Amino acid sequence: MIRKAVEPTLPAVPLRRSRLCLAVAATLYLPAMAAATDVVLPRIDVVGEHTAAARQIPGAVTVVSKESLELTQPLSTEAALKAVPGVVIKPEEESAVVANIGIRGLSAADYKTLILEDGVPVAPGLFVGNGRYYNPRVQRMESIEVLKGAASLRYGPNTIGGVINYKTKTPEPGVSLSGRVGSHGYKEATIEAGGRSPSGDALAGLAFTEARSDCFQNKGFEMQDLMLKAGMAIGDNQWLGAKFTHYENDANISYRGVFLDAFRAGADFNPAPDDWFLTERNSFDINHEWAIDADTTLNTLLYWSEMNRDYWRFGTVGGAPTVVVDGLTRWNFSDSVNGNNRAFERLGLDSRLNIRHDSFGMRNETELGIRVMEEEMIDQTIRADRATPRTGTLAKDVVDSATSYAFFAQNRFIVDDRLAITPGVRVEHYEQTRVDRRKPETEGNRAETSNTEVMPGVGVTFQVAPMAQLYGGVYKAFGPALNGDALDGLQDQQLEAERSINFEIGVRGNNERLRYELTAFRMDFDNQIIPANSNSEFQRTNGGKTLHQGLEAAIGYDFANGFSVDANATWIPDAEFVGDRYKADGSIDIPDGNRVTYAPEWVANLVLAYKSGPLKTALSVNHVGEQFTDTANSVAITENTSGFFTGRVDAYTTVDLTASYAINEQFTVFGAVKNLTDEHYVASLRQGIYVGPERALEVGARYSF
To answer: How high is the pLDDT of residue 27?
Structure first.
């Protein structure tokens, strides 16, 4: 048996034609492998596979299951997360090319939550450039784990908000074909294929998705995503898994949005029709599990990825950045084009030793782990023009690199059948380098810095009654200063990491029908990186503080007649700046008590589901409270043709209706109405207004053989 699971697979597959050939070849081959016993690939999980795993974690836990994904039919991983307690999504475009996720009052425009796929970091650079330029595709996901609390020490960095782990599908014997069409020319086709050896000791499979759409406001995209997975048993106590992915997406999106008059008129044109966001990514993981004995297991994960993100943006006409067309204000684009292009590469090793033992007169579960990781980002700016929009003059050529080492240890003291105490500590050391390749070495083209962070924590679980478990904990988390801040101007800014002391206490319980969880939390976020004052020799300094505290509540009940209800609400009365912040000239920039951007006070979700035989249907409601989009907490939306729009985004509520019907064991049809009430709302503000997607219809079918 091939247990647990992280995944990886095979060599790198180049271009689209090669990938498609590979997919077809694998499809033809895999079904020939005979099915045998259940096989599970080795994987590093955040929560765990067995049903009792969540009860062992001293913190709030949410698992978006395979069944939930099938029921709600999200088109992106971002959409799949919006119903998780404490999570806020900025739905800036339908395709969710980039991730905009906030947790517990941390801005959805920030990067303080660690996102993983099968235990591997998703962001292209955790230390060199933590932009969320890549969002894993939901079509290859089996479930999603969301972990908050002291157990986050097992991972890092950027665990201030917690950890999100996307778990990809394990190949199943046979072939599954699915397709979906929808509004705005949406087309999606997916093939999944898998097989196992006659002995049941090996498996392999693939998932390949191609999707394209004109999208709302003509922000079209064309995406292809390929995942290959394989695994095998090595003797009786070792297992090996591998996963390869290739992803590319050409998206016609931009930082520019529409103007107020166009928003109020319900305009559906693309505000930046010639801007393009081009992404290509390859990754390869290898996961090894060794059951040394009945109480000792060693998991080792080796991972590599490369990613290119090219962002081509047209400038506006100087002195006349806007123009009125058909009575509506639009951007007046010039012939100048900027290519903000970045190339990333990462190589990492993560190894974890788990030991169950009797010590101190009680049962113990010890976990020791190390991680070594190398990252590099080539950051270039290309000056071009409309005639030759993707070639031109090199205006920036910087190489950022980082080497990081991490060690963590935790021990779960199982005092008795009811009480467990889990102390832990994590140590992260990282070294950062920046080189400006346009400067010669003799002029000083290099800067370096390093830092070490020690993060302790402790968590407790106590089973008060069969349906009531208390849990709580306190831990320290951190987010490193990225190269662009730490080495701004090729000068060591002598920055420390941003740090947070996180507290939480809660109660949860579940049985066959009822499930609930109530959590109170507090995050004292300190040492944030802010502009230095006018008396400083540096451009950046530490000193900013924010406070985040509130409640998360979730409840679910399965009725005997096939109906079920799941509801949750998050109340964050405090997500605010602590202390006045000043500009370099000494004037106040952010007053004490102002609210953090994109941190609504209220977020609530409701899912009403009905299952009867082959029929499954659900009505999903998502409410997001009003949000400030600037640190000044401006109320009225103010248009700025030279910078970002500011103002308060009103609360909005969206409703989705989904249904599926299994005609037989092989054939299923499904459909959805997203934004059923056609809510017209502002999703976010940048250089213009990002409008939330309008009502959309989807229908599809799946056939397995």
So the answer is: 41
* Number of other residues whose CB lies within 10 A of the CB of residue 207: 24
Nearest to 401 by CA among 219, 704, 128: 128
Q: What percent of the chain lies above the pLDDT cut of 90?
A: 70
Q: Quote the strand ranges of 294-418, DSSP E.
A: 296-316, 322-325, 328-331, 333-359, 362-385, 393-414
Tokens of 614: 């082959």
The residues near 624 (Cβ < 8 Å, ≥ 6 apart) are: 88, 600, 602, 603, 651, 652, 653
Q: Beta partners for 276?
A: 312
Cα separation, 147 vs 103, in Å, equals 11
Nearest one of 178, 63, 163 to 121, comparing CA atoms: 163
Q: Return the bridge partners of 469, or none.
A: 463, 508
Tell me the C-alpha distance between 83 and 566, whole Å.
10
CA 577 from centre of chain = 25
Question: Is 565 within a domain?
Answer: yes
Contact between 332 and 316 (Cβ < 8 Å): yes
What is the residue range of 350's domain? 16-704
Residue 151 has pLDDT above 80, yes or no: no
Instruction: Give the residue among 36, 663, 652, 5 at the shortest CA–CA distance from 286.
Output: 5
HSE-up of residue 37 (Cα within 13 Å, Cβ side): 11
| Distance, CA of 36 to CA of 39 (rounded, Å) | 8
CA separation for the pair 58, 569 (Å, rounded): 21
Instruction: Count structural domains, the chain.
Output: 1
- Check: CB of residue 529 under 8 Å from CB of residue 544: yes
Does pLDDT of 22 surpass 90?
no
pLDDT at 108 over 90: no
Q: Are strands 540-558 and 186-196 parallel, antiparallel or unpaired?
A: unpaired
Euclidean distance between CA atoms 635 and 629, whole angstroms: 9
- Domain assignment present for residue 52? The answer is yes
What's the CA gap between 606 and 602, in Å, rounded? 14
CA distance 205 to 172: 7
Alpha helices in 93-202 (DSSP H): none
> What is residue 43's DSSP assignment?
B
Determine contact, residues 532/578, Cβ cutoff 8 Å: no
Q: Kindly list the distances between the CA atom of residue 608 and the CA atoms of 397, 558, 562, 611, in Å, as whole numbers in the listed order.
A: 53, 10, 11, 10
Tens digit of each residue's pLDDT (9 = 90 or more) over 443-485: 889 999 999 999 999 999 999 999 999 999 999 999 898 898 8
pLDDT tens string 334-359: 999 999 999 999 999 999 999 999 99
For 374-405, the pLDDT digits (tens) are 999 999 999 999 999 888 999 999 999 999 99
Q: Which of 121, 128, 134, 135 shows the shortest CA–CA distance to 377?
A: 128
Is residue 54 in a domain?
Answer: yes
Q: Beta-carbon neighbour count of residue 325 at 10 Å?
A: 11
CATH number at residue 141: 2.40.170.20
**pTM for the whole thing?**
0.91
* CB-neighbour burial class of residue 130 (10 A; exposed 0-12, middle 13-18, buried 19+): buried
- Grouping H, G, I as helix, E, B as strand and the rest as coil, residue 184 is helix
Whole-angstrom CA distances from 560 to 68, 615, 617, 697 are 19, 16, 16, 31
Query: What does pLDDT average to over the chain?
Result: 89
The alpha-helical segments, DSSP class H, found in 547-671 are none
pLDDT at 606: 97
Q: Does some domain include residue 9? A: no
